[in-house]
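Lab notebook, design round three. We kept the backbone fixed and only want residue identities now. Task for the bench partner: fill in a sequence for the structure below.
Input structure tokens:
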């Protein structure tokens, strides 16, 4: 008999995604493997039993009352995978919103010193503690919305050492948030101002130095 740490009961529906193709595409995306009036038993942070409430209760030794939670008719679904984010940076560009509302283009804002290079300047100046704190706060907001796996790009340092520094911060951010973070190196996000007119040199540095450096890290 299973001895779970926790028991979740009273779910009106549980989307298990069982008995279907992976990944689900086309019509198969509607096949959610629904269990109605379900329960979930957890042990060591893993699901050890899932099914109709009667079937699950019959397979387990019920944990203490303070470890049994009534979901009160909630629907349970797998956590979201956020496959594209630019969460790792310092500062904010929300002050540019009024200009955008009034019709300014991305290039207009960039020429005025805003846009991506405003974020690059802030990120380069920020110490590790600030970057970890601000990025963690953003990702925790995503977690409250249901995301548990998040892809996170670099791309706001735009130097060899700066981009590698951003990658090295991600394990600390994952530890702080409890999220599964999938890192992406984005050194070619833009050509930095100091490389203006030397695009080829910048790309060559990425190819010959930075990408091997990422592979070694």
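Proposed sequence:
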């Amino acid at each position: 008999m299973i001895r779970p740490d926790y028991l979740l009961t009273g779910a009106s529906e549980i989307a298990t995604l069982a008995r279907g193709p992976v990944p689900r595409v086309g019509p198969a995306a509607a096949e959610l493997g629904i269990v109605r009036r379900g329960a979930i038993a957890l042990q060591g942070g893993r699901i050890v039993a899932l099914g109709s409430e009667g079937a699950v209760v019959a397979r387990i030794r019920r944990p203490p009352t303070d470890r049994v939670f009534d979901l009160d008719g909630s629907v349970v679904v797998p956590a979201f995978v956020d496959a594209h984010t630019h969460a790792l940076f310092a500062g904010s560009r929300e002050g540019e919103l009024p200009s955008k509302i009034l019709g300014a283009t991305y290039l207009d804002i960039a020429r005025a010193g805003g846009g991506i290079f405003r974020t690059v300047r802030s990120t380069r100046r920020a110490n590790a503690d600030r970057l970890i704190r601000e990025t963690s706060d953003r990702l925790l907001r995503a977690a409250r919305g249901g995301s548990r796996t998040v892809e996170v790009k670099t791309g706001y340092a735009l130097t060899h050492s700066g981009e590698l520094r951003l990658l090295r911060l991600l394990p600390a951010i994952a530890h702080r948030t409890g999220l599964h973070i999938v890192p992406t190196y984005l050194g070619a996000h833009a050509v930095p101002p100091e490389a203006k007119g030397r695009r080829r040199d910048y790309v060559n540095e990425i190819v010959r130095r930075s990408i091997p450096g990422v592979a070694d890290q």
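Keep this in mind before ordering anything: Residues 45 and 81 are 19 Å apart (CA to CA).
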